[in-house]
Amino acid sequence: MTPADRHLVIFAKAPRLGRVKTRLARDIGAVAAWSFYRHGLDTLARRLAADRRWRCWLAVSPDTALWTGQRWPVGCDLISQGDGDLGQRMARVAAVLPPGPVVIVGADVPDITRDHAAAVFQALGDHDAVFGPAPDGGYWLVGLRRRPRFVDPFRGVRWSSPHALADTRGNCPVHWRVAELETLEDVDDGAAYRRHRRPATSADPP
């Protein structure tokens, strides 16, 4: 399998003031939330696109942001998310990409590293799906082997709820082999933002 056969997809909204991280904006202000998202997206995309072990994509929303002059991070191919809820959009992207395993991550998880991506692609060698759990019951990453074909595990999931991961895992065929990575937190509110920015101390775990 060549790097072109491994697809790492960052789901991203066009970083427009007042349109991104609205929950976070209620706690820290719209400008600060917009700046955090824009900087985080640029940093994450550069970090992941620099690794030649996979092909990096940005799945963008709204679709019009593909051709309206929006500045996107370099190094990633662009694809539109399409319409529908999060599950419908992830299923669409996973269904239309070229053959090979697909890994989807969000743009608001600053701690994602290239080692995380490498680990999930390795796990997909003998697993059908891989999840990165989040503390709120959702997940920050999903990887799908898509072999011999793509099976949609996202139907009927209760998004933005403590049941999102359990619902998605419950949709997986019973014969699937499923793995999980470590738990990471997306930055959705002021508390998560402060935890992300808190400097490490000697009392912190490594």
Percent of sequence in beta strands: 15-25%
Q: Kindly, what is the distance between the CA atoms of the first and last residues, rounded to a whole number of angstroms?
A: 34 Å
- pLDDT under 50 segments (min length 5)? 200-206
**Number of helices, counting only DSSP H or I runs of 4 residues or more:** 6
* Radius of gyration, CA atoms, in whole angstroms: 17 Å
- Estimated structural class: alpha/beta
Q: What characterizes the major β-sheet?
A: 7 strands, mixed
Question: What is the overall shape?
Answer: globular
Average pLDDT over all residues: 93
Give the number of DSSP strands: 7
What pattern of helices and strands is seen along the backbone?
EHHEEHEHEEHEH
Bin the helical content: 25-40%
**What order do the strands of the largest sheet run in, or round the barrel if closed?**
3-2-1-4-6-5-7
What can you see in these coordinates?
- The chain is an alpha/beta fold.
- It has helices at 22-28, 30-49, 86-96, 114-123, 164-171, 190-197; strands at residues 7-13, 55-61, 77-80, 102-106, 129-133, 139-144, 178-180.
- Helix content is 31%, strand content 18%.
- α1 (22-28) crosses α2.
- The N and C termini lie far apart (34 Å).
Secondary structure layout plus pairing:
Layout: E1 7-13, H1 22-28, H2 30-49, E2 55-61, E3 77-80, H3 86-96, E4 102-106, H4 114-123, E5 129-133, E6 139-144, H5 164-171, E7 178-180, H6 190-197
Parallel strand pairs: 1-2, 1-4, 2-3, 5-7
Antiparallel strand pairs: 4-6, 5-6
Helix pairs in contact: 1-2
